[in-house]
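Supplementary notes for students who missed Thursday's class. We covered one full example, reproduced here. Read the sequence, then the structure, then the short commentary at the end.
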Amino acid sequence: MLLPFFVACKDNKQNVAAGRTDSLTVPKDMHTQSNADSISMKHLDLDINVDFVTKQISGRATWDVQNEKKAKRLRLDTYDLTIDSVQVDGIKTEYTLDAFVEHLGSALNIPVTETTSQVSIYYRSGKNARALQWLEPQQTLGKKQPFLYTQSESIYARSWIPCADGPGIRYTYTARVVVPKGLMALMSAENPQQLSDSGIYHFDMRIPIPAYLMALAVGDLRFKSIDKRTGVYAEPTMIDKAANEFAEVGEMVRAAERLYGPYRWGRYDALILPPGFPIGGMENPKLTFCTPTIIAGDKSLMNLVAHELAHNWSGNLVTNLTWNDFWLNEGFTVYFERRITESMTDKSYADMLWELGYQDLEAAVEDLGKDSKDTHLKLDLTGRDPDDGLTDIAYEKGAAFLKLIENNVGRERMDVFLRKYFDEHAFKTIYTEEFLQYLDEKLIKGDTALRNKLNIDAWVYGPGIPANCPRADMERFKKVDAARTAFLSGAAPATLQTAKWSTHEWLHFMRKMPRPLTADKMKALDDAYHLTQSGNSEIADLWFIMAVAADYQPAYPAMDKFLSAVGRRKFLEPLYEEMMTTNKQQMAKDIYTKYRQNYHPLAQMTLDKLVLNK
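Structure (token representation):
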């Protein structure tokens, strides 16, 4: 299964480099064991029950299939699923499960004929369902009702639905979901805005999507409208704060449309999840899942929503064919996100995001190794968990590459190119060499000087940060640098001009501080700016990292509370890592052991290795 991918990848790189883009071979997705390339799965009908007592999803998944290539079997991805029975066109049929493969799970094999049109699988999720986080009431904000949410990206949909789990495989779906009365169910589909008295909810997604965009959330939720096509869901104690924070999202959607064409998914709603959500946001169609850490009270962290919104063009609309091409989802989205943010603020504000992103890219390259193949845009994740590719390389190096193209061709030409790219590839998949072919044909157009300036091979197939990587204007950060220098030279914090600083200026101020700071300087900053009590999660996390480095113990009780309530890996990993590398291993183990159950299984996997050496 792996050899065709390697041949395709190697040949494609050589063909592109030689200008033979008419000879590309479509790479095979190594992270699905399904045979979706032989038998088409057009539609999924789900009928499932959510049981909080057994912490199990159970029910039926029915696939409408077309067997035009006369395959002898249907192969689906599963991970820790119990298969109770299978029916083919309504007749009970024998099936087999292959041996478990690390990262991939067990392939489900179902015999079919060329006339088979429908296959039903009756199944139950397992205890090791990597997509599911079951929360006890005390782990929610309201403390009264349990909560469930899914995180299917990258290949975790197979742990709660038997499916063809690859980003290049699209299908429509309908669902009937039964939950305890008093709870609301939401999916990446048309959603209810009121509680169902029966606890039964029906969903319809008429636009084909890949499995990683399958999403389900069940909990004590309320809805507030923002405008005719946008709104927000949250727990009752959070709904007013969330609605206030999201007040400008309707305008954000319009700003995105002005850049790159119509929003094609109908409604754009967001769901604020409980604190254990392991990532910032997930771009589930029609319903972005968001971390509560973006609710800062001043809309200062809403560029994360701009990012998830942008995914409705780059990712949801035009999707990477395999996880080796992940930068085509995330690099485009970061670029688009910053264009949205600039249109709603100004260039100096967006420049801060570009510079912070460059700093993140530098950190990622240092962490992975400047010569590591994992710093290429085109990845090789053979035999590995595709989550290994979810680094800032795809996000920041990918975005910087697009920014380089913009700088060389001009913003007007770049925007025309991207608008056409989204239109011509709408609801399709694309892989790296295919994009490079499109770039060559539609934008470079034989301009040798431009091609040489871009040095595409160094970006896509080379390590580290290319020499021609663009940098943002440092207008606002130069003032921050001056303030930091003054403080380190003895100026009192009260004399620094910080009143109008945004979150991003504070992050730059602290990121560039020497570590560790002296106890006196930590106390001076804390006395002046109350950083230990910051309600801004981005600022708080960085401050706590500084506190651990400096052994600034007045911050430790607040840090403990922070780690009990926040499940986002972006915050957890560097903070626990700082403890582990500054001779505070026991503190890290004690805190992690106390709060491990509050974290999502994906965060637990990362932190078990880091803190417990498992």
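Commentary. The first helix runs from residue 3 to 17. DSSP finds 19 helices and 21 strands in the chain. If anything here is unclear, bring it to office hours.
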